[in-house]
Write a structure and sequence with these properties.
By secondary structure, this protein is mainly α. It folds into three domains: about 70 residues, Multidrug-efflux Transporter Regulator, Chain: A, Domain 2 (Orthogonal Bundle); about 120 residues, Leucine-rich Repeat Variant (Alpha Horseshoe), CATH 1.25.10.10; about 100 residues. The chain is built from 19 helices and two strands. Helix 7 runs parallel beside helix 9, helix 9 packs across helix 11 and helix 14 packs antiparallel against helix 15. It is elongated and about 120 Å long. The chain starts with a helix and ends with a helix. The model has no long low-confidence stretch (mean pLDDT about 85).
């Protein structure tokens, strides 16, 4: 079969067949009566073998080795091809993500595109200062897609940069909440923590609803951050978790401040005082925890708290009794 016929039937161009010939990959073994080179059936099978191996990503050099070297083993080469393919997919995925984010920002012209690309690159910089400036600039200068800000916030380890990213997300409003809700479901504890911290800084009713849901989250850290944020928003659902934090000495000062803020509502104040008294009477609560609970009562107004402190001033635990007596003195002043 002449080269033109082979090209038509195999789909390999005549130019490529000549290139294979020049490299010694496949050389026509026959001759026509007129002296033209002619491909045999075996030659054509070899062409299809070459094309099959090329489809796996092998170079022509490796194709030749695979077909001609009896000692050639494919295992290492295939493993290397797998690695290269994964790297290429990762690069292409990263490019696709970047293009999607640029498209989501709806740039008006190429100047906008260049500015968005610069900010996206800065968000991924190794320099914390550059990342922080990019987070701040994302609000003032160019509309960086919320998806990029959320991804950066959930992966950021530098506290200053993380604060800037949370501030930027807070300016975006409810748009970030769905993505942050996904972060709350992450298998990585640090990601869940960053997600709830970011939600806590979004002043939005939907954010409050998400924080309410977070009070039932299986991650204790998520529940605690949610309770602190809800306490600041005047949501009484946070009270049980805040009291647990005082008992467990986990951000107990912040938890007590949150209870004090909630106690501005007289009805809630009585509920808080009643719950604090219940925990004080719990037999499993140790002395230091009872002291912290007594101190927390100091900032809760109302008769329920006052009566409880009066009773505690005669508590058999001397440290608790002294604390209650001192607190009563301050309340009467």
């Amino acid at each position: 079969m002449l080269i033109g016929d082979v090209a038509r039937r195999s789909g390999v161009s005549a130019r490529m067949l000549r290139h294979y010939d020049s490299l010694g990959l496949v050389r026509p073994t026959g001759r026509t009566g007129a002296g033209y080179r002619e491909y045999s059936g075996e030659d054509i099978r070899r062409i299809f073998h070459i094309e099959s191996l090329r489809s796996l990503g092998l170079s022509l050099r490796d194709v030749g080795r695979a077909l001609d070297d009896p000692g050639f083993t494919p295992a290492d080469l295939v493993d290397d091809l797998i690695r290269q393919t994964r790297e290429r997919i990762a690069r292409e995925t990263e490019l696709l993500t970047r293009l999607r984010r640029i498209g989501a920002a709806e740039p008006a012209d190429w100047e906008d595109v260049l500015q968005i690309v610069a900010l996206l690159q800065a968000l991924g910089s190794e320099s914390a200062g550059k990342r922080q400036r990019a987070a701040l600039s994302s609000v003032r200068e160019a509309p960086v897609p919320v998806e990029a800000l959320v991804e950066a916030a959930l992966s950021e380890t530098d506290p200053n940069v993380a604060g800037a990213l949370r501030w930027a997300l807070a300016q975006s409003g409810a748009d970030a909440l769905a993505l942050l809700a996904e972060g709350l479901g992450s298998p990585v504890a640090e990601v869940r923590k960053r997600a709830v911290q970011a939600v806590a800084e979004i002043p939005d009713g939907d954010a409050t609803a998400l924080l309410r849901d977070a009070l039932r989250h299986p991650d204790l850290t998520v529940r605690r951050y949610a309770a602190l944020a809800l306490g600041a928003r005047g949501v009484a659902d946070a009270v049980p978790t805040l009291i647990d934090m005082i008992v467990e000495e986990a951000n107990d000062a912040d938890a007590a401040d949150a209870l004090s803020a909630l106690a501005g509502d007289p009805t809630v104040a009585d509920q808080i005082a009643t719950r604090l008294v219940d925990r004080l009477g719990h037999g499993a609560t140790g002395s230091s925890a009872r002291q912290r609970l007594t101190q927390a009562l100091a900032d809760i107004p109302g008769n329920t708290a006052s009566r409880a402190l009066a009773d505690l001033s005669e508590d058999e635990d001397r440290a608790v009794a002294l604390t209650a007596t001192y607190v009563l003195t301050l309340r009467d002043a």
